[in-house]
Design a protein that fits this description.
The chain is an alpha/beta fold. The chain contains ten helices and eleven strands. The strands form four sheets. A four-stranded mixed sheet has the order 8-5-9-11. A three-stranded antiparallel sheet has the order 3-10-4. Strand 6, helix 5 and strand 7 form a beta-alpha-beta unit. The chain is globular, with a radius of gyration of 21 Å. The protein binds pyroglutamic acid. The site of pyroglutamic acid has 9 residues, from helix 7.
Length: 324
């Protein structure tokens, strides 16, 4: 409140009492670093909002968990400590399986399928967030999730007992089903976790492989591209509704543009960042037929489990997607 009052006062001073148009300055916590395409897309979104509102609404992006750590961002926005934020959607799967719809291995492993799955699940996610006083703005997928290992893995057996990084409930479950040992590690902590042997392997996108300089720790990348988990951006509904209508519209317009742009950036990243991994000395492999079959079996198990957990709403989503 104090913050807003100050911002309003600055607005009056800047424009003179005659043109007293309140200025709003929003802080936006995000989890990933500045070099990550999601963050760059959000910076552009913030710029678009500022220019569409002629500076009346500015959004300052606090990346890499610098304002709130990733696990706290949702609650900080819910409580109004920050008006807007970004998180990995499936981070919330432990409270409601619906949020994990994009993290079931091989349910939607291409951009086309991921887009279709988003189309049929968006309303459910939007409604869940609305129940929490949050308004969904946009969601953008990471490139496909692939394995980073110290030696070439051609069968799941080789993962037995390996300390495996988890970043949500699905990666934790995947580790268990592979016989590996899951440990939760935020993206920004990957290098430390490898160098202290807390983890010896992980599954993530080529983007996160590059931003964490995976080549310093693991020599092999196995291109499983098993699913495309999304980041989502949402706003505190009360803060949003307190804005004048033209500013709300500017946000929705910038959000729609950010969603389109983000999906395109993500697509372009995939080959680009795999090339960067190779350039830095990682060996890039196609999964062996045996490994691919074993992973698909784990995926089928996880799809069944997800269906159990996600209830009737989950069943409706799978049906609309054409998988039941
Ligand atoms: N990067 C994030 C989530 C999925 C991804 O590709 C991470 O590894 O934490």
């Amino acid at each position: 409140m104090k913050h807003l009052a100050t911002a309003a006062l600055c607005g009056v001073l800047a424009f003179g009492a005659g043109a007293a148009r309140a200025q709003t300055a929003w802080d936006m916590p995000t989890p990933y670093g500045d070099s990550v395409f999601h963050t760059q897309n959000i910076m552009q979104f913030a710029e678009d909002v500022a220019s569409a509102t002629e500076g009346a609404l500015t959004i300052t992006v606090h990346s890499a968990g610098s304002l709130y750590a990733h696990p706290e961002i949702r609650d900080s926005v819910r409580r109004g400590l920050a008006p807007i934020g970004e998180i990995l959607m499936s981070q919330l799967a432990n409270e409601d399986a619906i949020f994990g719809v994009d993290s079931v291995p091989f349910l939607a492993a291409s951009y086309e399928d991921a887009a279709r799955l988003w189309e049929v699940s968006r309303a459910a996610i939007t409604a869940r967030l609305a129940d929490q006083g949050l308004t969904l703005l946009f969601a953008v997928p990471w490139p496909g999730q692939s394995l980073y290992v110290t030696e070439e893995v051609t069968s799941i057996d080789q993962m037995k007992g390996v300390n495996f990084r988890a970043y949500n409930t699905a990666t934790e479950r995947l580790a268990q089903l592979m016989g590996a040992v899951p440990t939760t590690v935020e993206a920004g902590d990957i290098p430390t976790a490898f160098s202290t042997s807390r983890i010896a392997a992980m599954i993530t996108s080529p983007s996160t492989g590059v931003s964490s300089q995976a080549w310093d720790f693991v020599g092999h990348y196995i291109d499983t591209q098993a699913w495309l988990p999304k980041n989502m951006v949402f706003v505190n509904t009360r803060a949003f509704e307190a804005l004048p209508e033209d500013q709300r519209e500017a946000i929705f317009e910038a959000a729609a543009a950010a969603e389109l742009r983000g999906w395109e950036m993500s697509r372009a990243e995939t080959a680009d960042k795999i090339a960067t991994l190779a350039k830095n000395g990682m060996q890039v492999h196609e999964p062996s037929a045996a490994l691919a079959a074993e992973l698909r079996e784990i995926g089928a198990t996880m799809a069944n489990e997800w269906k159990q957990q996600a209830g009737p709403e989950g069943a409706r989503i799978l049906e609309a997607y054409g998988r039941n």
